Amino acid sequence: MDYKKIFKTRAVRAAVLNCLRFIPDKTMLRIQYWIKTGRALNLKNPKRYTEKLQWYKLYYRNPVMHQCVHKYEVRDYVAKKGLQDILVDSYGHFRSVDEIDWEKLPDSFVLKTTNGGGGLRVVLCHDKSTLNIDEVKQQLPVRKAKTHSGGREWAYYGLQPGIIAEQLLVNRENPEAGVNDYKIFCYRGKPKYIIVDVDRYVEHKRNFYDTDWNRLNITSDCPAADREVERPENLEEMLKAAAKLSEDFPYVRVDLYNVDGKVYFGELTFYPWSGYVQFDPDETDYLFGEDFELVKE
Fold first, then answer.
1. I need a surface site. Which of 62, 97, 178, 214 has the fewest CB within 10 A?
2. Domain range for residue 97?
3. What's the DSSP call for residue 119?
């Protein structure tokens, strides 16, 4: 079923999911998994990566996850791991847009809500003099703490909302395209696969690699890049950082940036694509699930 043809905007889909919040998580995940993948969800003996992510939502309850998905509080987690050098500069943490002192912000920056938003509630400002503050207020509304999420992602439940202002990382060759995003699949502190998103704000593409930077013949719901992505010279530094940040969890995706030879922290993602991504070949779903150990915290 192509539900996006029925509910054509993300706002409408979010409203529908909000109306269905009375449905228990397990039941809702079974429904969503069937709608989005065309398969029944196996929670008793999951083998697929996408199935294990649904199990993870329901049964893995490590309270540190709440800190790790909060866009501001995660900075303390990264620093306690001895990796404060990879944090981007922070310009402030606010309860709402109305609290921001625009004069104190640099000419370029990023604004984003602290309790997530699927990449929607993010403002990239390349030139403060051209920023429309009224539009920013519309794009970054601060809502109440989450009691549920559309994808029933437990780590986001109860997060206190807010807005942070941070350093804007720039692709000097093509500023409008955005910097490459290195998404490292880690299993209990062991990096295994690297997904590289390129041209994220123009013609988004995605390549898959192993940790030796061998290109994998895998695609997903995002087209592959029509070029090879150059192996970062400091790839080993990135992998060490990812290993350190992921050692407390059975699985987490560690997102990093690498700009002008310097590694920067992006975020920690426990439920990539909410566990509904489709891989080609389909065997990839099993491959990515092999090292994903299911344990109840």
1. 214
2. 89-168
3. T
Compute φ and ψ for 256, nearest 5 degrees: -130, 160
Within a domain: 45: no
Q: Which 8-state DSSP code applies to residue 259?
A: E
Task: Count CB atoms within 10 A of the CB of residue 103.
Answer: 6
**pLDDT per residue as tens digits for the range 15-45:** 556 666 769 999 999 999 999 999 999 999 9
Q: Which residues contact 141 (CB under 8 A, 6 or more apart)?
A: 121
Whole-number Å distance between alpha carbons of 88 and 83? 11
pLDDT tens digits for 153-175? 999 998 888 999 999 999 877 76
Give the position of tokens 């909410």: 274
For residue 38, CA distances in Å to 19, 267, 278 come to 23, 30, 10
- Counting every residue, how long is the chain? 297
Indicate whether 145 belongs to any domain: yes
For residues 145 and 156, give the distance between their C-alpha atoms in angstroms, rounded to a whole number: 9
Q: Is residue 257 part of a domain?
A: no
What lies within 8 Å, CB to CB, of 89 at 6+ separation is 166, 167
For residue 16, being part of any structural domain is answered with: no
Of 139, 146, 141, 148, give the one whose Cα is nearest residue 160: 146
Rounded Cα–Cα distance for residues 73 and 149 (Å): 19
**Strands of the 90-94 sheet, one edge to the other:** 90-94, 163-166, 109-113, 122-125
Q: Is the pTM of this model over 0.85?
A: yes
State the Cα–Cα distance between residues 226 and 117, nearest whole angstrom. Answer: 29
Amino acid at 167: Q
Contact at 8 Å (CB) between 271 and 153?
yes
